[in-house]
Specification:
Length: 189
């Protein structure tokens, strides 16, 4: 690491230079996606909540929209009973230092999920998100997904908000939540 002069921003030399391509904010939650601007193309995601922050590498930014669709389905259908086909899903979001980073929906409560870091040797760290935090995280994922799908300097805040609502409600172009659930069931069968 370089020595800092006053007002100088230091970059971690082990991490490539990145630029932010999407940001979703709701309540105490923020979901950001960065893309490398030098070297091989890579995407870095970060979730900041009231108690912790998690940064990991995405395989592709499309996983943010999948997460938004799945979380949105849970949020819109809060009455879904435990054991339903839409409860208990798991979506791999990417990797962190050789560990899988997953978003896991609870099998007992439709408005609770976990960010899970799972090591290859079966160790795991689970971050529980429920209630209002779950609803805010859902909205933040939807806003970030809307920015990924509708980039550009001329997109208004109202257009982004509308796109985020389409993603959460399953009315946006692309795979609806039911199709994403089917893909997850096939992958884990």
């Amino acid at each position: 690491m370089k020595a800092a002069k006053q007002g100088q921003i230091l970059e971690d030399e082990s991490r490539p230079a990145c630029g932010q391509i999407a940001l979703g904010v709701s309540g105490n939650w923020e979901v950001a996606v960065d893309e490398t601007v030098t070297g091989p193309q890579r995407w870095i995601a970060q979730v900041d909540g009231p108690d912790a922050s998690l940064t990991w590498e995405l395989e592709s930014p499309e996983v943010i929209e999948k997460a938004a669709r799945l979380l949105g389905d849970m949020n819109l259908h809060g009455e879904v009973s435990a054991g339903s086909q839409t409860c208990g899903w798991e979506l791999e979001l990417g990797r962190l230092a050789g560990c899988g980073v997953c978003l896991v929906h609870d099998t007992e409560s439709p408005q609770r999920c976990f960010l899970l870091i799972r090591s290859p040797d079966h160790g795991a760290l689970r971050w529980t998100i429920a209630g209002q935090d779950f609803r805010d995280l859902t909205a933040a994922f939807a806003q970030a997904a809307a920015e990924l799908v509708s980039p550009g300097p001329n997109v208004t805040e109202a257009e982004l908000a509308g796109r985020a609502e389409e993603i959460r409600s399953g009315n946006a172009q692309g795979a609806p939540a039911e199709q994403v659930f089917a893909e997850l069931r096939t992958k884990h069968s």
